[in-house]
Each structure stands twice: as structure tokens, then as C-alpha cells.
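Self-study notes.
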Amino acid sequence: MAGKDGKGWIREIKQFYIAHNSDRISANAQALWHYLMYKANENWWNYPLCLYIPEIAFALKISQTAVKRAREELATKGYITWESPGGNKSARYYVLSRTNAIYAGQTGPKEN
């Protein structure tokens, strides 16, 4: 997502707030989206991001239930996709480009 000029992620953040002006999302969903962007950048935009709900809740200082609600809100509004392998395994997250940028994992989980 960094792009050739290194500013792709800045465009994504800008587009996030442009979209947010017309289609508001909750504060927890905003925090989760920023956390996922941070983790994606830390992972060099290689997907999936494998994260546990308790890890996210601790990082954002919100409840695990609030993380799940925020995750569903972001997925419903097209900011992310995610999949759960079940059991005690970490969920897999994909941050979707709002600027149609091409980067690793943009399309989300593979269909079986």
C-alpha cells in the first residue's frame, strides 16, 4: 500500500476521513481501523494479519465485545475483510484499499 512514492498509506488515511464525513463510523471502529493500518504497515503490507481479539482489545483499551462490534462495522462498510479459522486460532484480517491501490492481500481471503 505504500506505493512507489511512499505516500499510499497517507492517501488511504485521507480517504478514510473523506468517507467518514458522509458515512460516520464509531470511535471504536476508527481505532480498530487505525490499529489494523499500523499492524499492516509493521508487517510490510503482507496479508493476512493474524491477530487475536484479546491482543486487539488490550492495545485499544476496549472490551473484546467492543472489538467484535467494531470489526463487524468495518467489514459491513467495506473497510476490512476478516475470517476466523475457528477454535483458539487468531482471526485473519485484510485492510481493503479505499483508493483502489494495488498491494499485497488487497483482495482479502481466498474463496474455498
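Second protein, same conventions, sequence then structure:
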Amino acid sequence: MALVNFRRDVARAPVDARMAALLEGCSMEVMPRTAAKIESFRALMPKGTRVYIAHIEGTPFEDMLATAKRLRAEGMEPMPHFPARILRDAAQLNDWVTRYKGEAGVTQALLLGGGVSKPHGDFHCAMQMIETGAFDGFARLHVAGHPEGNRDIDPQGGEAEVMAALRLKQDFANRTDADMAIATQFAFEAGPIRDWAARLEANGIDMPIHLGVAGPAKLQTLIKFSIACGVGPSLKVLQKRARDVTKLLLPFEPTEILSDLAANRPANIEAVHFFPLGGITASATWINEQKGP
């Protein structure tokens, strides 16, 4: 007996022009192990898509470099992470930069403190790496932003230290020709994003925002990552949904937060950056559906 295909032919919803505009030029984050599961990035993403390569502590540099080389070969724009606290010294930093540039054509980088509490070497923050001059000549530098704060940087809460660090980076951008932007941690609610974007302006920080959002994923997966990454006030969006048992098995999609932001978009939000917590393919498929043919 032939198997019946139960896949529904669902009419595609009309493309929201504002959503499509917000998603123009969006980026994706991968790790070497998640990138290895993708047969072809060309089949999922437009040529020139910026793909961040997350450098988690313990990941061999050779794996990072191989991922960057593959992305470049497939027409993507690799942007590897440089986590200050896992680097040994300036010599190691320069070695990484030299090899990324020479072997993978890397000209873009995300500079961040890194997810370890105690530095492994001479660096403890992104600004120290910038000041070495290792990234002179790079086409673009991104730094980390935390719309809901960061307890590693401001242990007592608030954002005084986080904002001070961003002002230093803004000062560097002002006195150099560096093309810089702020890549944020993911969030689930538009209100805190708008408030943070306004506070950046009030503090004289005009580096454009590349807003982090989580791609489609199971609710339990998002809650787990949110707690691990210190996502704050907007976590209540997931917790509220978790109380509705009818939605527990459905993937959570970033439609609501991005539709809200697209309808009333802060001027300093330049692009969207996706954390594919439910898989790279799932995130890329969702993006392509929203942007339309």
C-alpha cells in the first residue's frame, strides 16, 4: 500500500514589507560543529551573508579556521569571534588574525570579552584587543551589546559598566575610520530593545545595532539557553507561553518581536542577527519565508 503524504499545502502568507526590510542583510551565527551538519550554505543563504563563527572555550582554533575557509569558499562572509578572556597574549591574537586573513580572507570580526569569568591570559575585554592594533585594516568590527544587562560585567545589576565599555568603543570608532556596530544578545520582547536603543542614543553611542534574536526552536530549548546566557526581563515571554500546554510542542518563532520592531523600528537598529538555537536550516527557512521570493 502506498504511503499517503500528509503534508498540507498551506497558502503562503502575504509578505510584510516592513518585516522583509528589517531582515534585509541579516546574519547568522554558527559553531564549527553545527556548520558541519549543513550540506550547503549556498542553498540556504544569499551570497555574501555574514556568518559569525562562535568560539566557545575549548574549541580548537583549527576547527574555527576550517569553518571560516569553508564559508568563504561557499560565498559567505565569515566573521569569527575573538573572545578576549580565552586568548593567551598578543602573540596568539596576532597569529589568529594573520591566519584568518591569509587562509580564509577574513576581514570582519566580532570582539567580545568571552564567556569565562577568569581571563586565561593578558586580555580581559574587547577594548584591550582593539588597542593592540591587530585589527587595523579590517573592513568591519562588531562588539557585544546587552539590552537586558550583563551580570558578569555589572554584578549588582544595572548597566553602568556595560554602558561605559560601549562609550569607550564609540570613542574609538569616532577617532578612527573603523566601521563598527553592536551585535546584541538575543531577547524576546520589543519593549526592552526600544528602551535600550534610546539609552544608547542618550549616552552618545551611535554605533548601529545588529539585533540578536533566537531563530525558531522548541520552547524548552529557548528557556534553557536563555537562563544560561543571562537573558533578563524578556524571559517572561517564554515563561508565559510555557504555561499554555497547547503551545509546548510548537516551535517558538521570532515573528512577534520582529513584527513589533518592524512596525516601529528604532533608527539605530541596522540589521538582525540570528542565533539558530533550533538549527541553522530552521532559521534560514524562516527568514526566507518572511522575505518572500
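Instructor comment on the second fold: The radius of gyration is 19 Å.
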